[in-house]
Write a structure and sequence with these properties.
The chain is α+β, with helices and mostly antiparallel strands and about 120 residues long. Helices cover about 25% and strands about 35% of the residues. The strands form two sheets. The protein has a four-stranded antiparallel sheet, with no helix packed on it. Residues about 110-120 have low confidence and may be disordered.
Length: about 120
Amino acid sequence: MKKNDIILVVVLLLLAVGIFIGYRLYHQKSGSMVIVTVDGKEYAKLSLSKNTIFDIEGIDGGNKLEILDGTASIIQADCPDKLCVHQKSIHYHGEKIICLPHKVIVEISGGEVSDLDTVVQ
């Protein structure tokens, strides 16, 4: 390869990385609620705006979910590997924390949190 070929490849790679980073930054939306599912069934919906610690009874054990300053994280688990505890806090729409041994999924959603089931006009 010649010098100009190498320069072209480097410029194209930098351009691709720049477009990817720009797209990710522009399209990431902060979520407003946490949806907890256990064994495929919805277990709880919690607001990200309210600081709380929530106990989750999963399959063969439990987890402790902490919502603090708009982020959610698993702070305690009694599973053998504790991978869910070591995952970073989440707050963007679509991010998840998964505990496979307990079949627990904690997911951020962008929907509005409401105590009402329906709106009547």
